[in-house]
User: Fold these one by one.
Assistant:
Number 1:
Amino acid sequence: MEQFQKIIRDLIALFEEHMPLEQRKLEAIQHDDVAGVEECMKQEQALTLKLRGLDRKRESIQKELGWEGKSFREIVEEVPAEDRQALRELFGQLTSIVTVFSETNKEAMTAMEVHLRDMQRVMKIKSNEGAYGPEGNPAAADRNLTNRRV
């Protein structure tokens, strides 16, 4: 049981370590800092590998304890009464940090998608491949926009 609680604490600590990085990535995206985004993504890869390792350990320990495939809620119901409150608190902390992380990550991904669309639009305009030419007149359509082959 102590190993399982330690793994949950380790997961919480990893997400807490990951949160500032996710925030830096969001700020880098918002400030068009491509190098900053790349650096954050490299660091994210290392943290993701740590997360996978911890999650595998958690699954292994759950299996050893007879909780394979069970949700945290189900596990709490199966532990002795004296361990329930501590486990509930750990699961609550983990749920909270994962929720905040997911929201920040979603915000960063949305910002990145918006910036990518903006860059694509600017590139099309600059290369005269967009819908309008340099004077604002409609660009000549020299090819179909869809493939008619089936």
Number 2:
Amino acid sequence: MSTPRIDMLQGSLWNKILAFSLPLILTGIFEQLFNAADTLILGRFASAAAMAAVGNNTPLVGLIVYLFLGLSLGANVLIAQALGAGNLRAASRTVHTAIVLAFATGIAVALLGQFVTVPVMDWLGVPPDVLPLTTIYFRLFLLGMPFLCLYNFISAILRSRGDTRTPFYALFEASLLNILLDLLFVAVFGWGTAGAAIATDLSLLVCAAKLLRALLRESGILRLDPRLLRACFSPAVLRRILAIGLPSALQGMMFDIANLVLQAAINSLGEKVMAASAAAFTVEIILYYGVFALNQTCTTFIGQNYGARNLQRCRRIGALCLAFAVGVALFNGAFALLTMHTIFSHISSDPEVVLLAETRIECVVAFSFLCAIGDTLSAALRGYGSSVIPAVIAFFTICGSRLAWVFLFFPAHHTFRDLLLCYPLSWVLAAAFLGIYYRTYLRHLRA
């Protein structure tokens, strides 16, 4: 199979960073359309309760996605470093080990999730009128986890050698399929949240199958050969993937655990706040994928150049990606503020829901440039192979501050706006401490 690849080790950087990032941005947007389609179509053709049910699942789905993304990032960094160093045998061994890990992780999450669904929903304090719909959606959604995990790992493998287009094409087709199936199952058959979850699972299956076929047909060193899965599986490589990927996964999951606590606080404010928050988060996460794509780009580019021991180029990559990420986040904030009323008026016909959704945009998206700073610094550090310290910093600054805000401040200021202020506060703390560590780490590399 012949696919465009980007040479990360030589030539100008800014244009290659943008060329690498653009398919990732589009991939992220279409990936989010899986959940966005569920929210929008349920809101239009089902009920506010069904829409709120998907919103309650958003932090749980995010928790799983962060696990898969973090673990797959470990494979991405190792393969990129191996390619940069010219160690093709290590790259091939990492590919086969990563695929085994992807299958095992996806199946484990699908099975374990079935047992914890009810206790988690109880802990979130999901209202009784929304609880059955929320539970049905999440349990059916879990059936697609092996496909979602496989998709994330194969995408990471292809990214490591400069191919971001193949995952985008696969996800684009699957996203269109998901929208069509959502309309069929929800609007025509009237299956509600169950139909939305089944549509997502079938679309994930198609997406994973397309990427698996692409990897099987790969002509280079990253080709997957099923006959070599047992022979090339390496416990040592698995430990290295986990050493980089697990802290990254935990960092993202801690971020989402704090959001689970926030979701419980949101639930205490009523069904309209729940629906508004779900709608605003859908827009919020789509806009954020520009920053997320630049983070993935930063990790991969630094990984390859660090493998080639070109430290000066690594530092230039970090600076460029940081500048691009902050610029994109500032643009997103301005765009959201200018268009939010029109967007949310199409999502919901309830003026109160629209007003509450706009509140989240004003308190969160408008300040997302602060989040971009911390996330890009973390991404750069992962490219060098440092994942533990950024995860620890995220735990105390993001998770810790948000939990403290919910339990100490929110009870006395029980409004949606006051609750949302914990987002910019946590981002300021994370950016400050990660900035200090990043500068220290770079000085160490120069030594």
Number 3:
Amino acid sequence: MNYLGIDYGRKRIGLSVGDDELRLAVGLGAILVKDWREVMKEIVKIVESRKIDKIIVGYPINLNGHIGKAAEEVDRFIKDLNEVVGVKIERMDERLTSEGVGDMRKRSPKKRRKLRKKGEVDKVAAVLILQDYFDREEA
């Protein structure tokens, strides 16, 4: 099976890919969110070209375990995505994912802005979400 990992964001959507054989997530990049239809088209193109069987979307549950506004926004994204892709979509708790991206936050503000513009932080978050999914499935 081939997987697409997604870190949803209002400005950028981070992407990663992986498969059952290696069970290793690899960064694919980030989509800059300008036109929602274009975002959906780009994801469909990736799903088709990479023969994706399952999409894993980071789900931002609050630290207290409750569903907040960010998770509700991701739910709407997943609903829209379900309408255009013909593959299974799963949510992956991303509460601890931000810790993995923390190293990028420790960089200078100028360096962080540059990384953010390139979508590196979003891509890394998508890698961590998908890798966490693989690791939990093996356990």
Number 4:
Amino acid sequence: MTKRYRAIAIGVACLVFLFAGFARGATGNVDAETCTANGFSLFGKVRVVESFPDLTVKIVDAFPDLNVQVVDAFPDRCGQWEFVESFPDIEIKFVESFPDIEIKFVDAFPGIP
């Protein structure tokens, strides 16, 4: 293998690792042991805002970082969210690209899949 082909192979390998990191998505932000993302709890009272959110969230149908169950009271388990207008534990913004986490709304079994 000549030096030129070796350099091309190394460049391609670097690009593959780079794109694999982007394809991994937001999963790197979620800590399964503490049920947090970027230091914020992924359960509790949640308020949706348009500016200055704690986390940006994308709703997906497959391969979410977190399964979210919407509850009316006592959101004390990982993935349980109670939407409120005041005194939230966390503020989120729904986005279509470059989210901090990806979620899927479920009726049962909330948490990190």
